[in-house]
């Protein structure tokens, strides 16, 4: 007898595109919340972007933030309800472009929240425009000749921005293989454990494929992350107040 | 309705003088408003506040023409003397404002507030000397009632000294002689 | 009743605390910074939370989060900062969350300047942010009213589940008057079952634009704001019973106008005053109830261009002349208001039109 285990937070099938990484990330986030018995207490601050698609399918209390402000909302929630696990779920456009200030200041204040930042290198929901995280030369609908870093700057490595701050936990993973998925799940768990022990700001950045807007097949998208994206955005744990860093 | 402007250099305690007057007026059962100056006047180096004291509702808290001017420096006289109502009171700090001819239709009391406060070793009390002279010259409140109010004001702030009352009473005495 | 002599900004902040406000997020800008300063000290004393946010955008978003968590919450700003609050206000309105917003008006568009003005009228009453929402806007004219309307704002925000704006200005912010403060009120953040606190055993909550979950939302939202408009008008009428010309002014300007009315009456000029206390809903009823003696109106505004004039004309179905006295950046003198009003009375008698 084989039992199909579905985490309690996944109340409906997700609405993401085929081959999208969000579905995997939703699954492991839901597993961590169940394993830590946090699903009933969790409050999520939801980005504008593809994250919005979770509002009916991921069964925790949600507050829809204005674009980019998820960390500020989470601050207001967590200060008022310090006993609840409070997290943001945001894409890279939301958290690192329009919401760079809110994201950084939550870290600077060492707010005791967990940020899940999904980096797919483009604006997904609006149709694949260039994001701060887009790679040099990357073709998007707003960089049709490829990203020109002379005009648009270098890709934003948010972990480099944060790693010297006084925060609790900082890690970057990807969802390209079973091994990497299991590792990200551990990072997410470490992040929530940091929060629940009052350890301050925790953030997990997750490199995730967007086959639709990358105009790439799902398997090629995963190879692209492993072969190219990770050279700009290395994986690992960068701050781990509770234990070893850079395992 | 009594309208009073207290004016002087920033640091002469002029806003506090107005505040003490407002507080004691309130405790004395009066309607009161206190408006600090800002804008061009403040940029000129002179701070002022406008106080209205009334038995009835105060409509506009702003003052154009006043019953009483408490002037701690020359600039205050330059700016406000012409706006004192005929028969009104002008208290002039004669340590700083010297050799000046005032309007003849005003009751002018010249009191060496800065010098008196220095003599009494309470250099921050020049504003209280001016208040003493003003209370005596206007009859706005009984001088003793107001003196108790000054003590209560500084007691509440936890930094009263008998010198405050002395400064104030010296102002009352100076106005009596004037 | 022990009266306390308080500055407008301080009194407003204390009123918020006493209304049960336990979260404040905001950013410094003159002339409202004393509200932050006061609450940075006061909030921890009552077990509340104060965050000096990195921007007004973040401040209003923190307020959004705290409101969603069920707490009474407030932010305040002025001029350029009030523009930045509009994003969050629209979101809070669309999620039907209660929050209190303070705008201490200062002069001008762009950077402007820090002195008193009433130029944010349109932004305050006509929307400000994007989309289909309105806010009750209270216009206090004294320090006591700063207290009373801030207190009321929290109640109305809860009643309608909508942000409420208190539109103060630089002069009320900095002046002092005696105030009678209300008793401390404790707000239970768990009173509303819709507050975000984790789903527990129940269904999960989605605190987002309610349009996604309400059937026939167009009708619903129109009814919501129609009800507010019908029930929440507040105003004060002074000596309108036999007036020939009625002044219209709100906030600090209304007090100068009261003095002008008294002055005019001494001179035998029949002036009256309508002081809107709510700017939205604009007190149209006050204009419907006037006697036939009232032949014209004059708005008195601390701005270089007329703003309330539009709402007065709408309230009158544009059937009577509405003049204006535009004080701009200067505090008007009652006598100047009386003289212009007397002039307008003559013009109206001659059949001159608006202006």
Tell me what the structure shows.
- The complex is a heterotrimer of chains A (247), B (178) and C (355).
- Helix content of chain A is 36%, strand content 17%.
- With 247 residues, chain A is α/β, with parallel strands linked by helices.
- Chain A has one domain (22-240): 3-Layer(aba) Sandwich (Rossmann fold).
- In chain A, β7 (169-174), α7 and β8 form a beta-alpha-beta unit.
- In chain A, α1 (22-35) packs across α7, α2 runs parallel beside α4 (100-108) and α3 (92-98) crosses α4 (100-108).
- The longest helix of chain A is centred in the C-terminal third of the chain and has 19 residues, at 178-196.
- The termini of chain A are far apart.
- A six-stranded mixed β-sheet of chain B has the order 2-3-1-4-5-6, with helices on both faces.
- The mean pLDDT of chain B is 94.
- Chain B has one domain (2-177): Pyruvate-ferredoxin oxidoreductase, PFOR, domain III (Pyruvate-ferredoxin Oxidoreductase, domain 3), CATH 3.40.920.
- In chain B, 43% of the residues lie in helices and 25% in strands.
- By secondary structure, chain C is an alpha/beta fold.
- Chain C has two domains: 4-231, Thiamin diphosphate (ThDP)-binding fold, Pyr/PP domains (Rossmann fold), CATH 3.40.50; 236-350, 3-Layer(aba) Sandwich (Rossmann fold), CATH 3.40.50.
- Chain C has twelve helices and 15 strands.
- Chain C has helices at residues 8-18, 33-45, 56-68, 79-94, 121-125, 143-160, 170-174, 217-231, 251-266, 284-288, 308-315, 334-350; strands at 4-7, 23-26, 49-52, 73-77, 99-105, 136-138, 163-169, 176-179, 206-207, 235-238, 245-248, 271-276, 278-280, 296-301, 322-326.
- In chain C, β6 (136-138), α6 (143-160) and β7 (163-169) form a beta-alpha-beta unit.
- Chain C is globular, with a radius of gyration of 21 Å.
- Chain C starts with a strand and ends in a 5-residue tail after the last helix.
- The A-C interface holds A 11, 39-43, 45-46, 55-56, 59-66, 69, 72-77, 79-81, 84, 101-102, 105, 109 and C 22-23, 25, 49, 51, 53-55, 57-59, 61-71, 73, 87-88, 91, 95, 189, 196-201, 203-209.
- β2 (61-64) of chain A pairs parallel with β9 (206-207) of chain C, so a sheet runs across the interface.
């Amino acid at each position: 007898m084989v039992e199909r285990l579905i985490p309690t937070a996944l109340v409906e099938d997700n609405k993401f595109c085929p081959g999208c990484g969000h579905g995997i990330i939703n699954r492991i986030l839901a597993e961590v919340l169940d394993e830590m018995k946090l699903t009933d207490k969790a409050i999520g601050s939801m980005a504008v972007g593809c994250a919005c698609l979770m509002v009916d399918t991921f069964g925790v209390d949600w507050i829809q933030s204005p674009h980019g402000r998820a960390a500020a909302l989470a601050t207001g929630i967590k200060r008022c309800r310090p006993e609840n696990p409070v997290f943001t779920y945001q894409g890279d456009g939301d958290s690192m472009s329009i919401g760079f200030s809110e994201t950084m200041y939550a870290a600077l204040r060492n707010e005791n929240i967990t940020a899940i930042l999904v980096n797919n290198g483009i604006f997904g929901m609006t149709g694949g425009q260039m994001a701060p995280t887009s790679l040099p030369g990357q073709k998007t609908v707003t960089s049709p000749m490829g990203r020109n870093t002379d005009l648009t700057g270098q890709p934003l490595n948010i972990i480099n921005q944060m790693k010297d701050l006084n925060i609790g936990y900082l890690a970057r993973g990807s969802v390209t293989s079973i091994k990497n998925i299991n590792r990200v799940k551990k990072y997410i768990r470490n992040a929530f454990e940091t929060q629940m022990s009052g350890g301050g700001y925790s953030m997990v950045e997750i490199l995730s494929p967007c086959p639709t807007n990358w105009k790439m097949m799902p398997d090629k998208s995963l190879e692209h992350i492993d072969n190219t994206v990770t050279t700009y955005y290395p994986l690992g744990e960068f701050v781990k107040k509770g234990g070893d860093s850079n395992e | 309705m009594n309208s009073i402007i207290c004016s002087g250099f920033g640091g002469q305690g002029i806003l506090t003088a107005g505040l003490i007057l407002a507080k004691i007026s309130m405790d004395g059962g009066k309607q009161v408003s206190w408006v600090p100056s800002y804008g061009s006047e403040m940029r000129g180096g002179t701070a002022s506040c406008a106080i209205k004291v009334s038995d009835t509702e105060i409509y506009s808290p702003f003052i154009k023409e006043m019953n009483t001017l408490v002037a701690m420096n020359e600039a205050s006289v330059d700016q406000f003397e012409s706006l004192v109502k005929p028969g009104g009171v002008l208290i002039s700090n004669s340590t700083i404002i010297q050799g000046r001819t005032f309007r003849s239709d005003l009751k002018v009391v010249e009191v060496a507030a800065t010098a008196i406060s220095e003599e009494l070793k309470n250099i921050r009390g020049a504003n209280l000397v001016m208040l003493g002279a003003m209370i005596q010259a206007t009859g706005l409140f009984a001088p003793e009632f107001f003196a108790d109010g000054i003590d209560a004001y500084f007691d509440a702030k936890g930094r009263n000294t008998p010198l405050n009352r002395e400064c104030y009473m010296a102002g009352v005495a100076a106005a009596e002689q004037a | 009743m022990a009266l306390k002599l308080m500055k407008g900004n301080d009194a407003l902040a204390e009123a918020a605390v006493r209304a049960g406000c336990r979260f404040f997020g905001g950013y410094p800008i003159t002339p409202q910074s004393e509200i932050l300063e006061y609450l940075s000290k006061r909030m921890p004393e009552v077990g509340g939370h104060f965050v000096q946010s990195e921007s007004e955008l973040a401040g209003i978003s923190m307020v959004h989060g705290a409101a969603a968590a069920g707490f009474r919450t407030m932010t305040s700003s002025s001029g350029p900062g009030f523009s930045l609050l509009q994003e969050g206000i629209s979101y809070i309105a669309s999620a039907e969350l209660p929050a209190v917003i303070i705008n201490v008006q200062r002069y001008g568009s762009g950077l402007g300047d820090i002195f008193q003005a009433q130029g944010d009228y349109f932004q305050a009453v006509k929307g400000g942010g994007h989309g289909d929402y309105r806010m009750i806007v209270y216009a206090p004219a004294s320090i006591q009213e700063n207290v009373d309307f801030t207190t009321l704002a929290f109640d109305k925000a809860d009643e309608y589940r909508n942000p409420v704006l208190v539109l103060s200005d630089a002069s009320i912010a900095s002046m002092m008057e005696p105030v009678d403060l209300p008793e401390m009120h404790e707000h239970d953040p768990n009173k509303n079952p819709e507050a975000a606190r984790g789903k527990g055993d129940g269904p999960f909550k989605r605190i987002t634009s309610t349009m996604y979950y309400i059937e026939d939302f167009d009708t619903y939202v129109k009814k919501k704001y129609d009800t507010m408009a019908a029930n929440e008008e507040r105003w004060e009428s002074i000596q309108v019973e036999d007036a020939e010309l009625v002044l219209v002014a709100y906030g600090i300007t209304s007090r100068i106008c009261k003095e002008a009315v008294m002055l005019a009456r001494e001179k035998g000029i029949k002036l009256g005053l309508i002081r809107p206390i709510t700017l939205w809903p604009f007190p149209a009823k006050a204009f419907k109830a006037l006697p036939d003696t009232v032949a014209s109106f004059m708005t008195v505004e601390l701005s270089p261009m007329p703003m309330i004039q539009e709402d007065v004309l709408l309230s009158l179905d544009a059937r009577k002349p509405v003049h204006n006295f535009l004080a701009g950046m200067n505090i008007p003198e009652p006598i100047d208001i009386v003289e212009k009003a007397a002039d307008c009375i003559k013009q109206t008698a001659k059949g001159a039109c608006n202006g």
